[in-house]
Amino acid sequence: MPKWLKDAIFYEIYPQSFYDSNGDGIGDINGIIEKLDYIKQLGCNAIWLNPVYDSPFKDAGYDVRNYRKVAPRYGTNDDLVRLINTVHKKRMHIILDLVPGHTSDTHPWFKQAKQAKKNNFSNRYIFTDNVWNAPAEYRLMCGLCERDGNYMVNYFSSQPALNYGFAEVTHPEWQLPMDHPDCQATIKALKEIMRFWLDQGADGFRVDMADSLVKNDATKEPTATIWAGIREMMDEEYPDAALVSEWCNPSVAVNKAGFHSDFYLDHIGNGYNMLMRGGSWGDKAFFNKNGEGNIRAFVDEYLPAYLETKGKGYISLITCNHDTPRPTAYLDEEAIKIAYATIFTLPGVPFLYYGDEIGMRYLPNLTSVEGGYSRTGSRSPMQWGKGKNFGFSENDKTYIPVDPDKNAPTVEKQRRKKGSIYKVVKDIIKLRKKRPELGADGDLEILYAEENSFPFVYRRDKYVILVNPLDHLTDVRFDFEIKQDIYKIGEYVQSWEKMTLSPQSFVIVEI
Asked: What is the pTM of this model?
């Protein structure tokens, strides 16, 4: 386990939307370098950088054309190395985004694979044996290649799936087993890509769709076996590098695949979703002040996973990310404050999405940009302050339109505003760093989390955290002797063996 990871507080940067240093309307690497001090002053000491690789941008860079080359719109390889080195000089860390399950359909490997004549890359991707063979159970692109066959994609038609083999071979005329030399060659190629950037100083990777490698893989254990082998390579050659998965199954991702941390993602109806979003648009989120949320939906899923992985790896809670609506779409400002305070005081390695710290709005109904579709509204340019495009760019046209509201939140405004989301995030991160019991490795005990009831109360060693998202007072039995309160949003009153929490409050007391 990399020693630095347990103290890491990550800031996710969507590079094209963070800061434009050259006035072309698109964020870039040099812009990130210029804003590193902002990230550090906020309290974050690690960065997750979304893809900056060469790409035709059919899926905002998650369709990679060249894994070893920075896309010119962001800068050069030298610029990325300079970013990495500058991050390190500031005693921070940076992980890159790794897209292992598919490439762009313009990648040189795929250009070779789709040729009619067999070559060394013919099995780098998954093709059926002829164009008339297109089993309905697979996502296949038909009749698009010179080669007589249809190719499998992981998502968009421009993202052909790399071939790591099939756990269960159901069509032997075109499916390969995992131990086939050509499938092993794909794993070798992936390792070489990772080595390339680790040798440049990257501190590890966040792995996109980490569970997508092996096909017909119901248990995901065959895919986990591949990652376990990669973890062995990293432990031997790059022991300080971190591996974080987009999997949302820590029991497999951490315990079997060897990831150091696994994202707890926003899937409709899962524990995280019911904590933050409560379905599609927040009507039943636990943090919604309407009282229709159910904390058990989160606790019953999160707690067993936490206990299974404790001491082996971490669960990473997120404020949001580039794939989900920003919390402002469904929670008010006070709800967001207590949601973030909760996220940053639970165990694991937390991730803060750029702009969430100032309450950036989700922008609905934007025209899709580079395959964003509904996600486009969470990818708008960072709002720094006064000036054109809220200080993001001097260009008349930005990559994605900026928030049209002239009163939109900015870093400048939030820094000045008493009790702002920005100040809550900064204060709670500072508190987490000062008191390790509130950090990644501290123990967790759930004290009160009842079905369709409030508040939510949990203990981190000598600290008890009480969360009342409701728009009215709520009581909870409390028989601990309080030494002091060390942080609070709202107020509380203790009498006899009861504590009364004010509406939409969050309190940390030392006992």
From this structure: 0.97
